[in-house]
Amino acid sequence: MKDTITIYVEQQDGERIALEAPTDMGLSVMEVLKANEFDVQAVCGGMAICATCHVEVLQSNDLPEMSDDEAYMLESLPHATDASRLSCQLKVHPDLDGLVVRIMPEA
Ligand code: FES
Predict the structure, then answer these.
(1) Could you give the dihedral angle defined by the CA atoms of residues 22, 68, 11 and 26, in that order, rounded to the nearest 10 degrees?
(2) What pLDDT, in 10s, does the model give residues 15-64?
(3) Which structural domain range is residue 37 located in?
(4) pLDDT digit string (tens) for 51-92?
(5) Domains: count for the chain
(6) What distance in Å separates the CA atoms of residue 36 and residue 14, rounded to the nearest whole number?
(7) Separation CA 13–CA 85 (nearest Å)
(8) End-to-end Cα separation, the chain, in angstroms
């Protein structure tokens, strides 16, 4: 099993920035984005209550199920799409290798 995966962040111009993320540190995708200085506020620190870590998943292999809390939060966002997720709820796991996300604006 690989202990590092690659997550891609698609920019507005379509360019994809590759981020390496360790799978053995219990990180969330939100924490990986912040560590790489993307503009993700994550005001609630990963509690699924602020939605400032909202991303749209453009490509994935195997995403974890959404919790009720995450689904409820996303439903309250007017600009959420069917592919929206809270990046704090996505744990870095080998199944996420190759994930492509777009960081969503806050409003
Ligand atoms: S960091 Fe607040 S909902 Fe994800």
Answers:
(1) -10
(2) 999 999 999 999 999 999 999 999 999 999 999 999 999 999 999 988 99
(3) 4-103
(4) 999 999 999 988 999 999 999 999 999 999 999 999 999 999
(5) 1
(6) 18
(7) 21
(8) 39
CATH code, domain with 68: 3.10.20.30
Mutation test of ligand 1: which of 44, 66, 85 has the most ligand atoms closer than 8 Å to its C-beta? Answer: 44
Q: Are 82 and 43 in contact (CB under 8 A)?
A: no
Q: Which residue has the tokens 């069917």?
A: 82
Strand pairing category for 16-22 and 4-10: antiparallel
For ligand 1, pick from 50, 85, 106 the residue to mutate: most ligand atoms within 8 Å of CB.
Answer: 50
